[in-house]
Amino acid sequence: MQKISYQLTERIGEIQLPKSLGFGLIFTDHVFEMDYDPEAGWHNAAIKPLRNMNMHPATMFIHYGQAIFEGLKAFKTINGDTVIFRPEKHLERLNNSARRMCIPEIDVPFVLNALTELISIEKDWIPTKEGEALYIRPFMFGSDPVLGVRPATQYKLIILLSPVGAYYPEGFKPVKILAQDKYVRAVRKGLGDCKTPANYAASLLATEEARRQGFTQVLWMDGVEQKYLEEVGTMNIFVRFKNEIATPKLTGSILPGITRASVIQILKDWEMNVTERLISMEEVISEYKQGNVLGMFGTGTAAIISAIGMMTYKDLVMNFDCGKPGDLAVKLFDKLTSIHYGKTEDEYNWLVNVEKKGIEAG
Ligand SMILES: Cc1ncc(COP(=O)(O)O)c(C=O)c1O
Questions:
Q1: Alpha helix (H) ranges present in the chain?
Q2: Average pLDDT per consecutive 10 residues, the chain (362 residues; last block may be shorter)
Q3: From the CA of 86, how far away is ligand 1's center (Å)?
Q4: Are strands 67-69 and 217-221 parallel, antiparallel or unpaired?
């Protein structure tokens, strides 16, 4: 097993976090980095000070987008422990994205140890107010300085850490969604189930147009017929019908969310009828008109649960839960955040405790 080298900076004075943290605006002192080339494989594993990158303008990923990333969170529990939510699932998903994008896979146990090491060094950066967290952004990209269109031969992996504020600083509020069929985010057999920049680039114009019309997010429909619900903004979606809680099945164009998987598990344990299947807009409209849609919500690492208060599709405005977050969305949000902050037992073993894990990376 390769060794991690440490180049740590001496911090002068206390960490001063601003009152309002926002999202991804400030970064901790150190990053984890690793390089890949065909001869040495992944090597040069190091925890080092955060610095600007010095890159040749022909660096491949800038031109052809051969890059992938993850997004997960570490929390300070009410007992003062430092925990990460389901990190191995995120690193496994990073490897799924790597396979699709011709990027060499990482050794998950090794990178997980490196991550826990980095977080234990940076743990004083974890904000402690309700809803706050340390956002973890691992990313990988092809770094050859060559303009030919082909997979790179050299790669870099970097893990950045950013203290982030509560997603709902003014309380858990429902959002307004525009279901549109003018643009698609991803297509089956394309890149939709990978966390790769192209999917986010594809979503920008639709999201900007929706925001200009007063909506918070876009509801994405399938890339072929724009008939089936897929995702909402950068979240997975759940529809609460009268006798069923349905979420779109993973057809290849949907990111398999870790929060989605956690919510499915919790709902099953609450003995609720949760299904993964195709959900057409036609079905949602027809059930809504009969009073059978009790609510909708999104799931994702950033917001955890996002209640949908209103959805517009063409001329139809659908309102849910009288503008308040639905009781199921609130219950799920409370359950997941109670696990994050150690307010309830981690019955699923979803948390990795950074201190207790010890330092195995050597
Ligand atoms: C496109 C997209 N869908 C869904 C999700 C939710 O995934 P997770 O619950 O793993 O954060 C995310 C966020 O990572 C996303 O970017």
A1: 60-64, 87-100, 108-121, 197-212, 258-269, 281-289, 327-340, 354-357
A2: 90 88 95 98 97 97 98 97 98 98 98 98 94 97 97 98 86 90 96 98 97 96 97 97 97 97 98 98 97 96 95 96 86 97 97 75 34
A3: 13
A4: unpaired
How far are the Cα atoms of 5, 264, 275, 288 from residue 238, in angstroms, in the given order? 44, 10, 10, 14
Quickly list DSSP for 92-150: HHHHHHHHHTT-PPP-HHHHHHHHHHHHHHTGGG---STT-EEEEEEEEEE--B--SSS
Q: Is the CB of 71 under 6 A from ligand 1?
A: yes
Instruction: Reduce the DSSP state of residue 40 to 3 states and report it.
Output: coil
Contact (Cβ atoms closer than 8 angstroms) between residue 70 and residue 91: yes
Site of tokens 């180049």: 7
Coil, strand, or helix at residue 36?
Answer: strand
Residue to probe by mutation, ligand 1, list 187, 217, 219, 259, most atoms within 8 Å of CB: 259
Q: Would the pTM count as exceeding 0.70?
A: yes
